[in-house]
Every structure is written in structure tokens, then in C-alpha cells.
Write a structure and sequence with these properties.
Strand content: 15-25%
Radius of gyration: 29 Å
Structural class: alpha+beta
Strand order of the largest sheet: 1-3-2
Distance between the termini: 92 Å
Number of helices: 2
Length: 106
């Protein structure tokens, strides 16, 4: 199987091949030839591409869930910090305001 890829597509391809080898011990032998800034990639063995696509898609979905979780956690942390500062401001300014208002009553 041969495919012509752009530089970005080739970069994505090599990251996927590295991920599959490292995380799933799947070796994908291929050769590559660069022609006019394009990369012609030829797979050297018959490979179940749909199976690999499913593995990569599942990995992407798990990564996306983790990113969403971390972004939500960051938002919650920022909101908690904002609330902490707001409560601190209320606690430090209220006695002065109340005290100054009481002195007007006497």
C-alpha cells in the first residue's frame, strides 16, 4: 500500500507509528521517499488499517477526555481562587465599613 503525504501528514503518520509500537507493540514496517516536498510512504506488510484506526481513535478519545477533565479542573481551581480572594476582601473590608457606619449613629 502506498500513499503520498504532506509534511504535516507524514509527521502525524510517524507519531502514530511510534505510538502503536510503544503502547501496543505493533510494528509497522514502511519505507519513505521524499519527492518535491511530498512524502511517498509504502507499507511493507499487509496491515489491518481499520483496526489501527480504531486503536488510534480510542487513544485520541481518551486523550480528549483527559484534556477536557484537566481544563475543567483548571476552571474550578480558578473559580475557587477567585472565590477565596472575594471572601478575603469581604472579610477584611466589612469591619471597617460597619465600624465607620456605627460611628455615624452615635
Amino acid at each position: 500500500m502506498k500513499s503520498t503525504l504532506t509534511k504535516e501528514e507524514y509527521k502525524t503518520f510517524t507519531k502514530s507509528v511510534d505510538f502503536l509500537k510503544k503502547e501496543h507493540d505493533i510494528n509497522i514496517p514502511y519505507i519513505v521517499e521524499e519527492v518535491n516536498g511530498k512524502f511517498i510512504v509504502e507499507l511493507l506488510e499487509d496491515i489491518d488499517v481499520k483496526k489501527l484506526d480504531n486503536i488510534l481513535e480510542n487513544a485520541w478519545q481518551q486523550t480528549k477526555k483527559l484534556i477536557d477533565f484537566m481544563e475543567g479542573r483548571q476552571r474550578a481551581t480558578e473559580q475557587a481562587l477567585y472565590l477565596h480572594v472575594l471572601v478575603g476582601l469581604v472579610l477584611t473590608t466589612t469591619p471597617r465599613v460597619v465600624g465607620s457606619q456605627l460611628s455615624l449613629l452615635t
